[in-house]
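Practice problem: predict the structure.
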Amino acid sequence: ETDTSETDTSETDTSETDSEIEIPTDDIPITTLSVSTPTNVYFSGDDIVVSGTVSDIHEGIPVILQTVTGSDRVDIAQIDVNSDGTFTHTILADGPLWVSDTYTVKAFYGANNSVETTFVFTASS
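Answer:
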């Protein structure tokens, strides 16, 4: 379900997935940030849609999403915030890093705003 915490996002023209994306180091005004997935259980080959909202958009500040297990990072993305404060990112649950485990999706908006949600993934045998 949706976990809500305080954080900030902004509208940018670029969405990208890149292992070089860094967590922001600059603080921005605190705002409400939410992140969620439509279900809490996924299987190999599923599309995992991560969505959320920010209450105050800050120009040039994207939402950074990290999807991790206890031992590996399986996805990282820099997501533009829509003009209505929403954002969405889809992850394909497939590949060697996807093992049966509980995964955490961490959302960051600036250095001082973050929130997370979890889901369970079951790999094909």
